[in-house]
Amino acid sequence: MFNTVKSKLYSLLILFCLIFFSSLGYGFYNEYNVRHNLNQQALIPIVEQSISIIKTNYDQFKAGTKTEQEAKTTALEIISKLRYGTSGYLWVNDSNNVMISHGAKAALNGKDLSGLQDPDGVYIFKEMMKVINANGKGFVSYKWDRPDSDTPVAKVSYVDRFAPWDFIVGTGVYTDDVVTAFFSDLQTPLIISIILFLVIVAVAYKIINSIVIPISNITNAMQNLSAGNTDAEVSDQHRSDEIGEMAKAVEGFRQTAIEQKTLEVEKDATSKSGQERQVYIDSLISNFRTIITDGLENVSKNSSDMKNSADALSSISNATSEQANTASSASEEASTNVGTVAAAAEELSTSIAEITRQVEQTNEIVQKATDTTEMTNQQIVS
């Protein structure tokens, strides 16, 4: 899967994206929890303030400046009018789950809410009493209508108890208000994070391509060289990084291959030219030998003919000498014939000497041609 540089680099980019979004999501999740907890914790001082109002009026009742009913009425009126945020209000009920004062829905005042359930089946006020009985105060989660809507939404409330009058004071925050406020505050950092992410990805993508594409080009160039193709030039030689050094090295290999290819072509051409020259020289030598052989055969034939003529003349001379002894009357004629024969013999001797000289000269020419051929062959080989 990750057997190429490209896949490895892009896997790092994908890993970065996963880590980035995981970290971003985890950070936002933690931020939401922090905000949610802070909103819950913000309910505590609001309830404590209301308890303080009730206690102040209770102290006035104890001091005798107000009757108990006047003190209760004054405290409940103040609490019912308290508001905070966009939809924050308070209520007061007793331990029997009877609503004493509701800041948003006065129609609930005086009603027993023990059997009131939310859409999830939670007995709201019974759960509140469980928390009060267990810890004296605490948080309760359930669903409740908004003041301006009849649709129940998630809500977290904090309740505390003023024991002298059996007042259970509570207030809550709607979860979707927390979410709305959270995403409202989240828009700016989210946009900045996304822009930063896109910039990082774009830069990383450019860097990866600046590595992957040149490596691919160098790989193709090396494959072309291995296949004997030296025409394609190597790109990215201008770079000053390691890829540029690699490109320059491959270009060096290409130039070496080109030079080697050129030398091989020249060598082949030289070899072919030498072979053609050798064939031509061999042809000349063969023709020359044929001519010399024919010449020597003619000389030998002429020598044989001349020898035969000499033998014939010798026979004639002998016959003439015999005739000279038997015919004295023809002595003058015989003397003349003897002179003719002697002249012919001398001419024959001269011809033989000339033939011998020509044969020796021919042998010298053949030897020189042979030596020249050997020198030419040695030059071609070297």
Largest sheet: 5 strands, antiparallel
Instruction: Return the average pLDDT rounded to an integer.
Output: 80
What CATH calls the topology of the largest domain is Beta-Lactamase
Order of helices and strands: HHEEHEEEHHH
How far the N terminus sits from the C terminus, by CA atoms, comes to 57 Å
Name of the top-level CATH class of the largest domain: Alpha Beta
CATH architecture of the largest domain: 2-Layer Sandwich
CATH superfamily (homologous) name of the largest domain: PAS domain
Percent in helix: over 70%
The count of domains is 2
Count every helix, treating DSSP H or I runs of 4 or more residues as helices: 6
User: Regions with pLDDT < 50 over 5+ consecutive residues?
Assistant: none
Fraction in beta strands: 5-15%
Q: What structural category arises from helix and sheet content?
A: alpha+beta
In total, the number of strands is 5
- Side by side, the strands of the main sheet go 2-1-5-4-3
Shape descriptor: rod-shaped
How would you sum up this structure, described in words?
- The structure is a single chain.
- The protein has 382 residues and is α+β, with helices and mostly antiparallel strands.
- The chain folds into 2 domains: 5-197, Beta-Lactamase (2-Layer Sandwich); 269-381.
- Helices cover 71% and strands 9% of the residues.
- A 5-stranded antiparallel beta sheet has the order 2-1-5-4-3.
- It starts with a helix and ends with a helix.
